[in-house]
Amino acid sequence: MKVNNYKDISINKRIAMIAASELIGYQSCFVGIGIPSDAACLAKLSVEPNLNLIYESGAIGAFPQTKSYSTGSPSIAFGSDMITDSFSVFSELQAGRIDVGLLSAAQIDKFGNLNSTVIGSYDEPKVRMVGSGGAHDIACLVPNLFILMPHEPRRFVNDVDFITSPGSGSEIDQLRDKYKLGSGPSMLITDRAKFKMSPDGWYLHSILQDFSYEDAIEGLPWELKKPSNNPIIVDSKIIDSIDTINL
């Protein structure tokens, strides 16, 4: 696949491409459904063939060949190295044997708190969603957490309507230290840019080639300085493999 302009590539593909680049060097990944699954499969197909994909339904060594709409989809079980149960895979996570987790959500705030429960008040929501499943456990326990989100301003807020999966911030970080939990979200990937976590919340780390600083922060409610890092350029192996993933 030849890329003349990254803006010509679909939103989901851009997110998956950037995220796949960040999975180089990892051995095991606890995978959320949707874009996180697509990104993990793309990484395994292109730049990190030894990446072990783990799903909360109990599939270990998975490599779905078709679109998966839930963690219980037959496509996840097909071809897996091992089919166990949720208790077993979350036990592995709690024991610290899984390197990285990929999640998405309906809302995210400056400190990486995720909402996949309700839009509006909990008692009288505008929308009630199905979250979290295992997302809360992944967010609490995994040592490295990447959040994948399409650049839709309504998803990015100062305060999430409900904390389904905890992020960072002084109070949460104290609890993480006290109970020896994972360090929280370290990276936020959109279809336009990459953000990293600091004590003050997300900062803009780098921007996908062909997108401007204005594109990267459009509609986001946080103060974000222009980064000094070079633009994100995706590995050619990932680009060559992108059309084989059903995005």
TrEMBL record:
Superkingdom to which the source organism belongs: Bacteria
A molecular-function term among this protein's GO annotations: CoA-transferase activity
UniProt keyword annotations, A-Z: Transferase
SMART domains in UniProt: CoA_trans
Name of this chain's protein: CoA-transferase subunit beta
Species the sequence originates in: PS1 clade bacterium
